[in-house]
Amino acid sequence: MPDVTVAIPTFRRPNGLERLLLAIGKLETDARVRILVADNDGERREGVAVVERVAASSYRWPIESFVVETRGIAQARNALVERALVRGFEYLAMVDDDEWPEPGWLAVFLRVAADTAADALHGAVLPAFEKAPGRWTKRCYGFAPLRGRTGAIAMIHGTANVLFSRAAFEKLSPPWFDSRFALSGGEDKDFFTRLKIAGARFAWADDAVVHAEMPASRANPRWAVQRAFRVGNSDMRVFIKHSHALHEQILETAKIAGGLALSPLLMLLAAPVAEWRMLPVCKFARAAGKLSAAFGLRYDEYAVTHGR
């Protein structure tokens, strides 16, 4: 029975956090589970209040909350890892406060971790829309289900639904997540990039499923474009931080130029087909986000919170 810490960063989503904690309480697992919640809101402290209420209701697992005063997702993640390492664990799962796992989530993660000996694993993320979306969401990043084939993979790009071995954090020196990405996102891609450089192994566990809330404020083309721009912006900042080889810079420049030049033509070709029409728009926005980062601009998507 492995010791597993479930680490949850939260900011002003008390309803989502409570839903997540209740779902974790229903996990089908023999593991020894501990939950850590980092409330990144020193003013309202709604996350702390939720944890206190849940803990008082004979909650299944040991649960602890604390406040991280400095605003930023990187700061919250670092505080969670630091505290978890002191408490001790074999595996650390990280899930967001607008998500909730299926009952077999952790058992699948642990089984695939044992089979692959991976340092970090990613699971499937299925969007749960507040209102039925248009067909364009089927092909758009951030709206389509995030799935893959179970087994070893070359890279993990985000922390939406992940499991780490303790060794993953011991491969790097703290801070594990770069605070320069605090409100822009990309701190997770930067972390996994450094982890890969350190020789870590990655895997996908497709049956380790979480559902992700998609409120109406997000399920629209405008937010899709903003999201694509942000991902491009943060990805490029990570690239600039880590890539110095001339051939890598030339290749990335070609990708940006191709995205900007070809996407308008693809928009015209895809316009009559609802399922495809937003894909080239998002590709253009992503290339534009990369270009903006190349000129030193940063887009702070997480300055605004969606969902409750």
Mind explaining what this structure looks like?
The protein is of the alpha/beta class and 308 residues long. It folds into two domains: 3-214, Spore Coat Polysaccharide Biosynthesis Protein SpsA, Chain A, CATH 3.90.550.10; 221-303, no CATH class. 42% of the residues lie in helices and 19% in strands. The protein contains nine helices and nine strands. Strands 1, 2, 3, 4, 5, 6, 7, 8 and 9 form a nine-stranded mixed beta sheet that branches. The two termini are 34 Å apart. The mean pLDDT is 94.
Labels describing this entry:
alpha/beta; 308 residues; 2 domains; single chain; 9-stranded mixed beta sheet; Spore Coat Polysaccharide Biosynthesis Protein SpsA, Chain A
What is the string of SSEs from the N terminus onward?
Answer: EHEHEHEEHEEEHHEHHH
Given as residue ranges, the uncertain stretches (5+ residues, pLDDT < 50) are none
Domains, number: 2
**CATH level 1 name of the largest domain:** Alpha Beta
Tell me which CATH architecture of the largest domain applies here.
Alpha-Beta Complex
Query: Kindly, what is the distance between the CA atoms of the first and last residues, rounded to a whole number of angstroms?
Result: 34 Å
Structural class: alpha/beta
Amount of helix? 40-55%
Alpha-carbon Rg, integer: 19 Å
Strand tally? 9
Fourth CATH level, the homologous superfamily of the largest domain: Spore Coat Polysaccharide Biosynthesis Protein SpsA, Chain A
Q: And the CATH topology of the largest domain? A: Spore Coat Polysaccharide Biosynthesis Protein SpsA, Chain A
- Describe the biggest sheet? 9 strands, mixed
Strand proportion: 15-25%
Rounded average pLDDT:
94
Q: In DSSP terms, counting alpha (H) and pi (I) runs of 4 or more, how many helices?
A: 9
